[in-house]
């Protein structure tokens, strides 16, 4: 189907369900099916170059066998062989017509719409993926300082007034601290909370750019998100020793996978890690890159 042109980015969707009914059979059959799907996932992403979205379902509602399968596959198959990622909890339990599930469907459309955009042009002022169209000529964004995005819920309507985007300060999240300490669930929480932030802001976005969707219309109520991991010596809280910086680049990769409209990349750190991140961003993603550097604790001259 792929090689014949029947199935492509704009012509269809192929679902690989690693927890489908077929896995309820004999243990040997389940193992063979797992191997076959894993091999197909690698081929579709690596060999055929298809756009792949990993729908990451929180395992709390899974049986023990499914949880073990997910844990075993995630690091070797599901994450390496996908471009984007949607994290969901119990949104589907209330039915396909519920507002919670509509939110998930909208997020999938948004991710596909972003993935199909042309690459951003440095300094570009026109086109569907330009900074001017995405953020405006004079940009105002609000930096979140809540340890959990849901804490902002009572204030979101007022926060969105006259704002061009929300800055998702990952370094200030309680989940990010857990990630730094090696908590395996924190990665899911960071991605999930970003999706919730965008959803919470949607009804109140007063200035939002139109996002083309596969030539079939636009999504016109998406308040852009600036994804930031601010380090301690750059007016943030994230540790900037060697271990902390390595973890920071892991979190910036999550920003790309989440389809963040703008990825804030500090310019002061390891050149090799920075170049690798920017290369990945240019090859498979369409996020705008915001290069940043902060001088803290002293006054600088205009020349500086």
What is the helix content? 25-40%
Strand content: 5-15%
How big is the Rg? 20 Å
- Spell out the helices and strands N to C: HEHEHHEHEHHEEEHEHE
Helix/strand-derived class?
alpha/beta
How many alpha or pi helices?
9
Return the average pLDDT rounded to an integer.
88
Morphology: globular
**Euclidean distance between termini CA atoms:** 57 Å
Low-confidence stretches: none
Strand runs, count? 9
Largest sheet: 5 strands, parallel
Adjacency order of strands in the biggest sheet: 3-4-7-8-9
List the helices and strands and how they pair.
Blueprint: H1 27-47, E1 53-57, H2 64-78, E2 84-88, H3 99-115, H4 131-135, E3 141-143, H5 156-160, E4 165-169, H6 174-180, H7 186-201, E5 211-212, E6 218-219, E7 225-228, H8 242-257, E8 262-266, H9 271-284, E9 288-292
Parallel strand pairs: 1-2, 3-4, 4-7, 7-8, 8-9
Antiparallel strand pairs: 5-6
Helix pairs in contact: 6-7, 8-9
What structural keywords apply?
304 residues, globular, 5-stranded parallel β-sheet, 9 strands, 38% helix, alpha/beta, two-stranded parallel sheet
Brief sketch in words of this structure:
With 304 residues, the protein is an alpha/beta fold. The chain has helices at 27-47, 64-78, 99-115, 131-135, 156-160, 174-180, 186-201, 242-257, 271-284, and strands at 53-57, 84-88, 141-143, 165-169, 211-212, 218-219, 225-228, 262-266, 288-292. Helix 6 (174-180) packs antiparallel against helix 7 and helix 8 runs parallel beside helix 9 (271-284).
